[in-house]
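Aim 2 progress update. The chain analyzed this quarter is reproduced below.
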Amino acid sequence: MMIKAYKPLPKFPSISITGAWCALNCKYCQGKVLNEMIHVNTPTQLYALCKRLKERHGIVGCLISGGFTKKGKLPIKAYLPTIKEIKKKLDLIVSVHVGVADKNYAEDLRSAGVDIVDLNLLDPQTMTEVMNLKSSWKTVEETLKALQNYGPPFIAPHILIGAYYGEIRSEYELISMLKSYNPYIVVMLILLKVKGTPFELVKPPEVDNAIKVFEYARKIIPKADIALGCMRPRGEYGEELELKLLSKNLLDRIVIPSTFKPKYLPFCCSLPKELEDKIMTKLILEHP
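Predicted structure tokens:
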């Protein structure tokens, strides 16, 4: 079975449009993950950064992320005209990490030319107790429907296994919800201990229990690629997880594997095949 491996940096950087700010202050992150991204604070800075990175490092795209408002939204509206310019003048693939979305928000992303939405899919209890964001299953469903019907062409749902205090709670229900949307990919993440947060000592789910979630996803959405994304524990836990997933043929994509040395694709694992082919063709033409 062919496993595709990905290494986003340096060709596909992550950019926070809110710097280190986030209104939610989620228990597993508290904005600290944002410090691993490149920070910008204005649309002008975003365009200048993308232009400079393309000229100096030949980036092929970027993930635009950041902190969320108290309503669970990435405050991206002021950046949308700039994203349209980035698409038009720099010809970059643009992925946006969103939380809650409605029809207008989804339409705005599509109008700006955003290619991919990376959607963190969490259940209402986790959103309320861990993310400090009051929610309901109706909100989760409406976000999915809005993005699917009115948003960018590609929606890449991400499921964080163990987000509720390291327990597996509603992951199966979230996967079942995705079935009717026929996603081209499901990106699996595993709870990661972030130093200095309330979750610093929270253990991720047992490896075998996490693998059962992958097995369920393969069974329920057999046509979707299953990816093991960036956010996951490394070391002994990560190696055991990788080896067991690979032995069971439960992975189609993986970000920077620990257990084998692959030839990397230089971008984010959530890109659909159409955009992967476009980038690789472009890179071959530029560097024959």
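The radius of gyration is 18 Å. The first helix runs from residue 43 to 57. These observations will guide the mutagenesis experiments scheduled for the next reporting period.
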